[in-house]
Amino acid sequence: MEKLTNHLSLYFLVPSQFAAQLINLENASNVKKFILLGLSEDPGVQKISFVLFLFFYMIIVAGNLLIIITVTSSHPLSSPMYFFLCYLSFVDICYSSVTAPRMLADFLVGNKTISFVGYCMAQLFFLHFAGASEMFLLTVMAYDRYTAICKPLHYTAIMNRRVCWLLVFACWAGGFLHSIVQTLLTIQLPFCGPNTVDNYFCDVPLVIRLACTDIYVIEWLMASNSGLISLFCFLVLVISYTFVLATIRVRFTEGHWKALSTCASHVMVVTIFFVPCIFIYLRPFSTFPSDKHICVIYTVLSPVLNPLIYTLRNNEMKASMRKLWNRCRDKLGL
């Protein structure tokens, strides 16, 4: 109980106290740097991986930027669904940028060391900040589709622009609170060695295994924090789409089938993102080996597929992109 009280007391540190705690913890730990093993230690595989993941990262940035520009510049895409999609694209760029640039650099260098308090904890914080914000945003998008299909007469009143902004703010606030908890629980641990992280980025499950103290209580706190958030959001999504399918089942109009197609895209994104996260975080961290290849699914593959899924399966988006391309071509005189 005393350990649990000590861990929970970190949540309520004021900024000045937290800064002092951070300095003390850095001085108390013998380990100042971590070594990332990456996806592979084979030089040939690293070169191939660099080209492949550079291509993926370019698709993530270019594809999601295209969605943001298209939505913000096209009046027909002013509905709440596209408003949330625009922010999802922004979160995807931020989320992938936390891990991808460092991973690409590590493919080309032999020295893969990173500072503990500086880079490693910053990466952990922003990874969970963006990741949790995306989870909440996907849940909000499911609620938006539920409202549009199950309560069409009240949709514009319920999902007005003020509510949309409040929901986006709530997603960012929820992501920040989740991330600061994870970071505080990790950074207060003493690290005496070893200092090798069997992954291509710093994350909670692998980092806390290196702590030279009993982590039983803290790993369950973290699993309940990350894992239960993932599971809760996923269950809310499943319930929302269950109601959507039940509504569409008795309404065979063209508009509802179009909505079903949009929901199918959302379900694909949700499945790719949530299932690996639940598998990674909803379990005791110390009893399982590294799952770095599964981490690729939600840190790289999901942001790659999001722009493809939401554009290739959406006629309105494709039409707006064509209009945007034609306007740009006319201005350039092509």
Tell me briefly what this model is.
The chain crosses the membrane at residues 48-69, 81-104, 116-143, 163-181, 228-248, 260-282, 294-312. By secondary structure, the chain is an all-alpha fold. The protein has helices at 2-9, 15-28, 43-73, 80-108, 116-150, 155-158, 161-187, 204-208, 216-249, 254-281, 292-312, 315-332; strands spanning 33-36, 113-115, 196-197.
CATH fold field value: Rhopdopsin 7-helix transmembrane proteins
Q: Multimeric state of these chains?
A: single chain
Helix fraction by DSSP (H/I, runs of at least 4):
over 70%
**Number of DSSP-assigned strands:** 3
Mind summarizing the main beta sheet?
Answer: 3 strands, mixed
Terminal CA distance? 71 Å
Mean pLDDT: 80
Task: Give the CATH class.
Answer: Mainly Alpha
Structural class: mainly alpha
Give Rg in angstroms: 22 Å
Give the helices and strands as they follow along the chain. HHEHHEHHHEHHHHH
Domain count, please report it. 1
Q: Can you tell me the CATH architecture?
A: Up-down Bundle
Total of DSSP H or I helical runs spanning 4+ residues: 12
Global geometry: globular
Would you give an account of this structure?
This protein has 334 residues and is mostly helical. Helix 5 runs antiparallel to helix 10, helix 7 (161-187) runs antiparallel to helix 9 and helix 9 (216-249) runs antiparallel to helix 10 (254-281). The protein contains twelve helices and three strands; from the N terminus they run H-H-E-H-H-E-H-H-H-E-H-H-H-H-H. The chain has a single domain, classed as Up-down Bundle (Rhopdopsin 7-helix transmembrane proteins), CATH 1.20.1070. The protein has helices spanning 2-9, 15-28, 43-73, 80-108, 116-150, 155-158, 161-187, 204-208, 216-249, 254-281, 292-312, 315-332, and strands at 33-36, 113-115, 196-197. The termini are far apart. The longest helix has 35 residues, at 116-150. Strands 2-1-3 form a three-stranded mixed beta sheet. It is globular.
